[in-house]
Amino acid sequence: MFARVATFEGADREEMQRAVEGIRQESGPPEGVPATGFLMLAGLDDGKMMAIGFFATREDLEAGNARLNELSPPTGSLGRRTALDLMEVKFRTDA
């Protein structure tokens, strides 16, 4: 399994919440993004957000990354992207 981790900073909390609600209402990942799952984390006080997409294969990760790089978050909602990491998931568990 592989993960794409995008970090955003400077998000307005109300705008961020509206963007999250919009993403929740989608029926899945954007067209052309072969993700198997998605996780969003929000800082408690600092306007920082992390969006993590999970992919079954490295090829899916690369295709998803290319497509997501073409998209832009709604202006002001997630702030600006400050980091992007492509990673291999070595361990994952749910309680």
Summarize the structure.
This protein is of the alpha+beta class and 95 residues long. The protein is built from two helices and four strands, in the order E-H-E-E-H-E.
**What's the helix-strand series?**
EHEEHE
The gyration radius over C-alpha positions equals 13 Å
- State the helical fraction: 25-40%
Bin the strand percentage: 25-35%
The shape is globular
Total number of β-strand segments?
4
Under the CATH scheme, which class? Alpha Beta
Distance between the termini: 19 Å
Which class best fits the helix and strand makeup?
alpha+beta
* Total number of distinct structural domains: 1
In CATH, the topology is named Alpha-Beta Plaits
Strand order of the largest sheet: 2-3-1-4
Annotated CATH architecture: 2-Layer Sandwich
Output the number of helix runs.
Answer: 2
Biggest sheet descriptor: 4 strands, antiparallel
- Unreliable stretches: none
Mean pLDDT: 88
Report on the structure:
It contains two helices and four strands. The two termini are 19 Å apart. The protein is globular, with a radius of gyration of 13 Å. It has helices at 13-25, 58-70; strands at residues 2-9, 37-42, 49-55, 80-88. With 95 residues, it is α+β, with helices and mostly antiparallel strands. The longest helix has 13 residues, at 13-25. It has a four-stranded antiparallel sheet. A hairpin with a 6-residue loop joins β2 (37-42) and β3. The model has no long low-confidence stretch (mean pLDDT 88). It has one domain (2-88): Alpha-Beta Plaits, CATH 3.30.70.100.
